[in-house]
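Subject: Sanity check before I submit

Could someone independently write out the structure tokens for this chain? I want to compare against mine line by line before I put it in a report. The sequence has 120 residues.
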Amino acid sequence: MLAMTVMGWEADIAELPFSRHYLPMTLYRKGQLFLGWVLCVMFTFPIWMSLLQRAFGNAGMIAGMAFWLGHGIIMMVAFRCPNCGLSPFLSNKGFIAISTPWPRKICGHCGRDHQENDVC
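---
Independent answer below. Compare away.
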């Protein structure tokens, strides 16, 4: 067992992020972190929106609204199921789909568990 000292802590090399045993973050966890960011943006919306309006006038309001609406687009485009490409924030593929602000644990189209990592 190889060990090294990192900032005064003794750590096993197999547990460090650069190790080949390190597992990447799951799609569900990425969705949860993005949801946390969206909630932070939502609760601070009145503060930063008023600052943008005071600093830039109507252009600041338009930029703030574009920033806010961009989060919804990111939810649909940036997070994709590796098997079928459906966003974990959508219920299914099709014309009528339900969008939720929290990610789904199981894909609505192919049934893949988003809480599992793909390990080669």
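---
OP: Matches mine. For the report I'm noting this point. DSSP finds three helices and two strands in the chain.
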